[in-house]
Amino acid sequence: MVSRVVLVCAIIGCLQAGGGCRPADPTLVKIVSSLPRTGSAKQQSDTIVRGIRMALEEAGHRAGPFTVEYLDLDDSTAAAGQWTSEAEAANARRAMQDPDVVAYIGTFNSGAAKVSMPILNLGDLLMISPANTAVGLTKPGLGVPGEPAVYRPTGRLNYVRVVPADDLQGPLSADWAKKRGVKTAYILDDNEVYGKGIADLFDERCREIGIEVLGHDSIDAKAQEFKSLMASIKAVKPDLVYFGGTTQSKGGQLAKDMASAGIQAIFMVPDGCREQVFIDAAGAVNLEGRCFVTFGGMPPEKLTGKGSEFVARYRAVHGELPEAYAVYGYEAACVALRAIRDAGVKDRRAIASAALAIRDFDGALGRWSFDANGDTSMRILTVSGVKDGRFVFEELLDADAAASPEIP
């Protein structure tokens, strides 16, 4: 049975639309996704959606007694070239107003999650992110004041994510740099939720372990180039330049301008740049042997068990290796199906609670559980370099090393 809040939202939505409101089909449930389907993140979201569709097809579009339909929503606009608050809010309201929708897969960008999380929480609609990593979305005391309570106006949890958060990735990136002999670093960020958040965590860890931070600047991601900035960075001669941001917020252009300026430092970026578009934007020659990207989990080519089976099926269908986040889209859809099946009723609160109760999930990402905050128990971070125009696995990092401020 659908909750009273959801029914009220559905009725209001129908009245606002000026149309009749059909009753919910008791045998049908819908899963929607909200991802940037236009603009510069399209390639990454394409592979996430393919992963979602693969999970649904393997399940025969069934979950327990229900037939499952899928709706692929776009939270970006052609004019903006990226996600917008207006598009994400509209998607969340649309999902809320359809009583058949019981799971919402998204978002790709952590900033977008801040928009839809409180909307979906009001109706207890299960939200599963395949890509959000900002710590404040779930972890008390690690984000800005008021997080994550501000995203939970009901006081109940309905949000989970299948990807590790940045409190793992940021500090471990600094640990890796220290072990590689880095003594000085210059830090850049895109001044967005994800990018600045992970850059701040990297900065904090650098100072803890004795890496001198020569500067920390936020860039204007709308700028066409960063030549003057690179001239300033070159003058202080850092061993490493770290960028907290994404391909969409000019990660590739920074790498290109860094190389043009003759800066010999290592260039390190987080998972928001682990996509082929980043290499294409930067130019492979500007990255090989000097650029390293971290990722919260195993890259597709290193997945084992059910993960390697997913990669093989993906390649057979699409003729290419999936982008890094494709398997997270697949896993998110598998979680949604599991929660619907475990709940056994068409009730949003029951389905959200079933997802939060998942323990020892045997999936494509390995065996993992959700904790009390809705975060995954996975604590794997990998570092990849660039060779022959492609990402290549470099190293698996031990998450437990971040627990101590001392690096031998």
Give an account of the 3D structure.
- With 408 residues, this protein is an alpha/beta fold.
- The chain has 12 helices and 17 strands.
- α6 links the parallel β9 and β10.
- The radius of gyration is 21 Å and the shape is globular.
How would you summarize this macromolecular structure in one to three sentences?
The protein is α/β, with parallel strands linked by helices and 408 residues long. It has helices spanning 4-17, 42-58, 85-97, 110-121, 166-179, 193-209, 227-236, 251-260, 276-282, 306-318, 326-343, 348-356, and strands at residues 28-35, 62-63, 66-74, 76-77, 82-83, 101-105, 126-129, 159-161, 184-189, 212-218, 240-244, 266-269, 291-295, 361-363, 366-368, 380-387, 390-398. The strands form 4 sheets. Strands 10-9-11-12-13-16-17 form a 7-stranded mixed beta sheet, sandwiched between helices. It has a 6-stranded mixed beta sheet with strand order 2-3-1-6-7-8, with helices on both faces.
